[in-house]
Amino acid sequence: MDKTEIMRQRLSDYIQQEGKTQSQVAKELTVSTATLSLFLSGNYSGDNDEIAKKVAQFLEIGSARKALVQEPGFCMELSNTRKILQLVQITHVSGDILLLYGAAGCGKTTALKHYSSTTNGVIHVEADVTTNSPRSILSMLLEAIAEPVQGATSNMMRVLIHKLSGTRQLIIIAKQPLEKKLTFTHQKLTLAKMRTPL
Prior knowledge:
By secondary structure, the protein is of the alpha+beta class. The protein has helices at 3-18, 22-29, 33-41, 48-68, 79-94, 108-118, 134-144, 153-164, 186-189, and strands at 98-100, 122-127, 170-175, 191-195.
């Protein structure tokens, strides 16, 4: 396996493990989403070595960041963790909608990642400051179910409804911390979770 193929595989693994979308990673690599998609599929006709270098630097910086900021480990004994998991499971089974919010560091992200990684039928995406519109959220969800991101926002919603109706899948949209000076709608302030149909 050559270096480009190794970087392609490492980046695919990173995207899957971290729950990132190709769109988010493309922005960090400063390439278009189409370029990244073609690179990952092995169909990019441009300078693959240049993209592989960017990927290597991106992954190296990502590893250094992780070493500096250790995520807390999952701890089932914490009352917040148990409560979050219970609420998410009840909502998943009943098909309701749950809006979960709380102070930074209370265990929301860790519990939700655990639930997503240990439960079938869960689509988990993480929003950040770059996902500030309904269209960007729909794009992330379409990427998560391996559907093309194209057309008007209303068409994207119809595709999601068509693909997910009747599947009883749980959709978790987790928000990463944002600066206090930024203002967002109530829907984007916290984690929102819903089951299809939308």
